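Before relying on records like the one below, remember that each one covers exactly one chain. Contacts with other chains, cofactors or solvent are not represented anywhere in the record.
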Amino acid sequence: MPSAADVAGPVRVLELLVSTDLGGGPAHVRDLIAGLAGPEFELTVGGPAGGALLPALTAAGADFAPIAADRLSLGALRDTIRLARARRIQVIHSHGKGAGLYGRLAARLTGAAAIHTFHGIHAAGYGRGYLRLERALARWSFAVVHVSESQGAEARALGLAPTGRTRVIVNGVDAPSVRAAAARAPLSRATLGLRPDALVLATVARFDPVKRLEVLVRAMPLLAARVPEAQLLIVGDGPSREALHALARTLAPEGRVVFAGAIPDAARVLPLVDLYVTASRREGLPLAVLEAMACGLPVLASEAPGHVDAVEPEVTGRLVPLDDAPGLAAAAGLLLRDPALRARMGRAGRERVEQRFSCARMLEEIADLYREASGFSCRGSAGT
């Protein structure tokens, strides 16, 4: 366990991930590293090797150690403990289910302070056993972090927001950097397979059932009857790829739905987009939505946790009921036919991101939490 002599100098933090691929959790950690790594905080990333976002994580200023936190394995726990001891880690900050298990067990065994962030709560797939485990792990956590107010409320209902140990630290984005990324190495409509005259709806998402991408595909034939120029651009990849492609071939032939695959710096597609859409059943607070708003796009979203925090109805976009393809098509049709309304909502969304969802505010709140947690780590190890 760390001794009093060990804790001089920067606060040593291990960011433990279940994925280093493109996605909200790894992107969040990338932003933490870019904003915090330096004289006060020394950050190490642990997670599966080979992910597409790994170069960005290390370029942002963190060392990387391969840990298979995406699978159930005593080896992953052993590797986490060894890394924490070798680096004299004071704070283990976990992201994702497997990382949350290994990180909190390792923290308990090494004297580090444990912080766990939920980047979305998908309770329908958890089961009672997992919820009992999470509640037990929460008692070993210095803090459990939720990334939106609506996720925090959902967590309280499930017993995943322990009193005195829960923080809501709302996700944020660096809006100027997002806009710079959108303008850097721009993509063309022809490259992506979009028609020159298309009115483009777009979403950036992992191909996972909770994202409900099939709702967007099912909405397209209905939308085409209202707006023949409409095309849907889906950026991302994942386990639902084949099913989604098959559904699109059946319901939306002739290039009505365009699959762009996973694109690093996906903000580069946003200058081509007229309306950002998302149909997820649950979110934490999706960075892709905030990035779209930062680039001045209106957002049409399902009434899901996370979405309801980001989108101000009829001001920055519109919300539709969950799994409502007809409702989504109707709302999209009205917005696509009203460029002045889209422009007004886009301006309001950009202002909302800059005022309420700034990366600087998020980083300062997390830095404060790390400072508190490192003090707890020192006290916890003082008698060892």
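The CA atoms of residues 12 and 349 lie 36 Å apart.
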